[in-house]
Specification:
It is a single chain. By secondary structure, this protein is of the alpha+beta class. The chain has a single domain, classed as NADH Oxidase (3-Layer(aba) Sandwich). The protein is built from seven helices and four strands, in the order H-H-E-H-H-E-H-E-H-E-H. Helix 1 (3-9) packs across helix 5 (82-115) and helix 2 (23-34) crosses helix 5. The termini are far apart. It binds flavin mononucleotide.
């Protein structure tokens, strides 16, 4: 799929078919994640790939009952590694770059999913500590985004955006 077509077709997808995602597609998504830029090329983040049905169901309970999480074929949990970036960049690395690194990687996957005929949604509303406990995420990592991914079961309408006039201030 052409890049701008993927941008145009991208939606937050919260309903998935039962069909499992093929392993080659999962690998492709992970390679795309790994290709994202990061501050100082430190890649101050880690990704947890959740396939286990029981763990997916548990994630629903700590994400304000966002039931669609359990229905996705796989769930990716992007975690910032604040110390990794902090060792080189101090507070800015800890509090900003590591979160940016993880978020950009997730955004890459969110878009690549479209090109592979898949759908996903950024989930930011969850209890970080409880997510860590469920997945056994070590203390040095901070879950930033939960990204359920699956074959879309719905084609949501395009959501509105600001006008470029309101978004961009030309100096
Ligand atoms: C940082 C962030 C956090 C989000 N958290 C949630 C969430 O917890 N649950 C959810 O259903 N959607 C969540 N979304 C998706 C947004 O609601 C969605 O991107 C927005 O409404 C625009 O719709 P679109 O992505 O289809 O264009 C989040 C998106 C971002 C970028």
């Amino acid at each position: 799929m052409e890049f701008f077509e993927a941008i145009e077709r991208r939606r937050s997808i919260r309903a998935y078919r039962k069909k499992k995602i093929e392993e080659e597609k999962i690998k492709k998504l992970l390679e795309v994640a790994n290709s994202a830029p990061s501050a100082g090329n430190l890649q101050a983040y880690q990704i947890f790939l959740v396939k286990d049905e029981d763990k997916k169901k548990k994630l629903v309970g700590v994400s304000y009952d966002q039931e669609f999480i359990a229905l996705a074929s796989v769930v990716l949990v992007f975690c910032a590694a604040p110390q990794t970036s902090g060792q080189k960049y101090g507070g800015r690395g800890q509090n900003l770059y590591s979160i940016q690194d993880a978020t950009i990687s997730c955004a890459y996957v969110h878009l690549a999913a479209v090109a592979l005929g898949l759908g996903s949604v950024f989930v930011g509303a969850f209890d970080e500590e409880k997510v860590k406990r469920i997945l056994g995420i070590p203390p040095n990592l901070r879950p930033i985004v939960i990204l359920p991914v699956g074959y879309p079961d719905k084609s949501p309408e395009k959501t509105p955006r600001l006008s470029l006039k309101d978004l961009v201030k030309e100096i």
